Amino acid sequence: MRASKKLNINRLNDIISPYKWLIPSAVLFAIFLLYPIIFSFVISFFKWSGYTPSSFENFVGLKNYIHLFTDMFVWKSFRNTIFLVISVVVFQNIIALFLALVIFFGKFKFDNLIRAIFFFPVIMSAVVVGLVFCKFFQIDGAVNQFLEVIGLSKLTQAWLVNPNLNIWIISFVGVWSWTGFNLVIFYAGLQSIDKNLLEAAFIDGATLTRSITAVVIPLLKPIIFLCALLNFIGGFKVFDLVWVMTNGGPAHSSDVLTTYMYYQSFQTLGPNNMGYGATIAMLMVVVVLIFSVIRWKFTVKQ
């Protein structure tokens, strides 16, 4: 009996032992991710300025959620966010994949240096990138000076103040900043492809273009979807670049959900309504979860 008990205990320890290593990560996940999500969900049913000692004094029920669907600035921010996400997912992946293919099949002598140059903006702080491009697009910035030099002075303007252009400029800066990240991932995927498949395609008379479309792209589909998911989540979370370049203005014209959430929750000149800010955060969580589930379902079918 004792031997069997010891054997059962040893088996139980063998089963539990791997999960012990997950405890530190699970604790960090619970403190810095799970708890904030739960707390945000709870206070979304309250009206709280963020300054009173208790956050659970003024219960408003579903009023924050009702206001969410009638707030024109929420949907303006949502449209800007979707535009930013789509531009990042589409253009960033297309440009990065094209550059990865050129570098991989071009067999350049200094391909490592070329990849490093494209990756360099990724390691730069988004605040620094935003400040630099703000200088470019100011009235006396490099863009307007260039237009004056080539005789197009009529086109000069305060670019980031134009409500029809500022979100386009932010999207351009975002794509420029993060294309190198996708490029490195795609290049790693290209290196993992069995060279025998490409050699067989060339022996069968396939051109380089045909080999890329018929062999390379299908094999890179999981990586393309991974990059698209990461870009989608990153686009939904973008805050620093928008805040540094435009502060979400003018008149909320370049706000995305994160900046509008910040305005509602913390901004000195804003409503200081932490409960409503948490409601906007819940909208973001739901959208990202829906997209993640769709992507996971699609991957399983693959």
Structure write-up:
The chain starts with a helix and ends with a helix. Helices cover 74% and strands 0% of the residues. It contains 14 helices and no strands. The chain is flat and about 75 Å long. It folds into two domains: 1-43, no CATH class; 62-301, Orthogonal Bundle (MetI-like fold), CATH 1.10.3720. The mean pLDDT is 85. With 302 residues, the chain is mainly alpha-helical.
Write the layout of secondary structure elements.
Blueprint: H1 2-20, H2 23-43, H3 63-70, H4 72-106, H5 111-123, H6 126-136, H7 142-149, H8 166-192, H9 195-203, H10 208-219, H11 221-237, H12 240-246, H13 257-265, H14 274-301
Summarize the structure.
This protein is mainly α and 302 residues long. Helices cover 74% and strands 0% of the residues.
How would you name the CATH homologous superfamily of the largest domain? MetI-like
Spell the H/E element sequence: HHHHHHHHHHHHHH
CA distance, first residue to last residue: 50 Å
Note the main sheet. Answer: none
Output the number of helix runs: 14
Mean pLDDT: 85
Features:
MetI-like fold, 2 domains, 302 residues, single chain, mainly alpha
